[in-house]
């Protein structure tokens, strides 16, 4: 019997019984594995950390995309940093009003491996509005002169190639290339275990120092450490609750499995211990 085991803390492991080990590659940036499992279907890992699985990927990808799109349905130009599995792009391509999606992923191997072995998330990548660039997101935001309405930072944790995507320099450049009413969404780690909680605090401190509106919202993602995961919503103009226009994706007639208007509003209601951590930095 084979198991994939991810170390959540020095004292807690998360294990998944696997049917088969489908693919393995040492890319120039990280170790990539794809597995098939009994309960979660296919999943892939980067440097031993589960990125996405067939059973719960919808939660992360719906929450990272539909939340900003329902606050400013006028979004036309979008930048996705990371997100090599294509899940965020898939959700974005559901909006006919979006004109251009640039996806900047450091590791082309992630995209190619997902297109072959983890196709549930890759369906939007061939949409003609999507341009893929394989480079470091930190350098891209530093050098580009393009202006975006929405930036989605769909990154790995701040170790290895993802480290630069949690720096003040990165957030400053995101601010610079966002339109006057631009929105920045980032995967914001987790409040529960110490390691992710420290990263959450550091990211929040940097983002609040730059953006007039900087909120945090949550989702329940069973396969991420502790299951309690956060996203950052930072904006130059829009408040995610006051300016919420109702679920735009519902209006368009696309079925969602997690996101809806109630979830949108409720997701910004944080537990006290999380609020305290975000204030006492
Ligand atoms: N939804 C999943 C999650 O949150 O765990 C998947 C995240 S997605 C796979 C993260 C992607 O970010 C990876 O494919 C990784 O290669 C990419 N990435 C990491 N550092 C990056 C950087 N500096 N620039 C661009 N992409 C980066």
Provide a count of the helices: 9
| CATH arch. level architecture of the largest domain | 3-Layer(aba) Sandwich
| Oligomer classification | single chain
In total, how many beta strands?
Answer: 12
Instruction: Profile the largest sheet.
Output: 7 strands, mixed
Q: What is the helical fraction, as a range of percent? A: 25-40%
Q: Which structural class do the helices and strands define?
A: alpha/beta
Over all CA atoms, what is the radius of gyration?
18 Å
* CATH homologous superfamily label of the largest domain: Vaccinia Virus protein VP39
* Overall spatial form: globular
The tally of domains stands at 2
- Reading side by side through the largest sheet, how are the strands ordered? 8-7-6-9-10-12-11
Which spans of ≥5 residues are poorly predicted at pLDDT below 50? none
As for the CATH topology of the largest domain, it is Rossmann fold
Q: How would you summarize the topology of this molecule?
A:
Layout: E1 2-9, E2 12-26, E3 31-37, E4 41-46, E5 49-53, H1 57-71, E6 77-82, H2 87-92, E7 100-104, H3 108-117, E8 130-133, H4 137-143, E9 148-154, H5 168-176, E10 178-187, H6 194-210, E11 213-220, E12 228-235, H7 248-251, H8 261-267, H9 272-279
Parallel strand pairs: 6-7, 6-9, 7-8, 9-10
Antiparallel strand pairs: 1-2, 2-3, 3-4, 4-5, 10-12, 11-12
S-adenosylmethionine is lined by residues 46, 51-52, 60, 81-85, 87, 104-107, 110, 136-138, 154-156, 161-162, 164-165, 187.
């Amino acid at each position: 019997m084979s198991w994939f085991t991810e170390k959540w803390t020095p004292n807690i492991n998360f294990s998944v019984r696997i049917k088969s080990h489908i693919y393995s590659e040492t890319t120039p940036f990280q170790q990539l594995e794809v597995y098939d499992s009994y309960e979660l279907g296919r999943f892939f890992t980067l440097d031993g950390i589960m990125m996405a699985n067939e059973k719960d990927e919808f939660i992360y990808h719906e929450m990272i995309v539909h939340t900003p799109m329902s606050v400013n349905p006028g979004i036309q130009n979008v930048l996705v940093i990371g997100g090599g599995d294509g899940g965020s792009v898939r959700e974005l391509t559901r909006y006919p009003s979006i004109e251009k999606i640039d996806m900047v992923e450091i590791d082309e191997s992630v995209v190619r491996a997902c297109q072959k072995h983890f196709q549930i998330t890759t369906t939007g990548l061939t949409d003609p509005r999507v341009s893929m660039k394989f480079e470091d997101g930190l350098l891209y935001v530093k050098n580009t002169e393009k202006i975006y309405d929405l930036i989605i930072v769909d990154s790995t944790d701040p170790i290895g190639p993802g480290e630069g995507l949690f720096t003040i320099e990165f957030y400053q450049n995101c601010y610079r290339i966002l339109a006057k009413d631009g929105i920045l969404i980032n995967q914001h780690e987790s409040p529960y275990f110490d390691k992710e909680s420290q990263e959450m605090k550091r990211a929040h401190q940097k983002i609040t120092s730059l953006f007039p509106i900087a909120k945090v919202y949550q989702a329940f993602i069973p396969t991420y450490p502790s299951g309690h995961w956060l996203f950052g919503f930072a904006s130059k103009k829009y408040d995610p609750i006051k300016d919420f226009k109702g679920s735009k994706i519902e209006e368009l007639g696309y079925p969602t499995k997690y996101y809806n208007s109630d979830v949108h509003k409720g997701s910004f209601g944080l537990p006290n211990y999380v609020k305290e951590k975000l204030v006492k930095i």
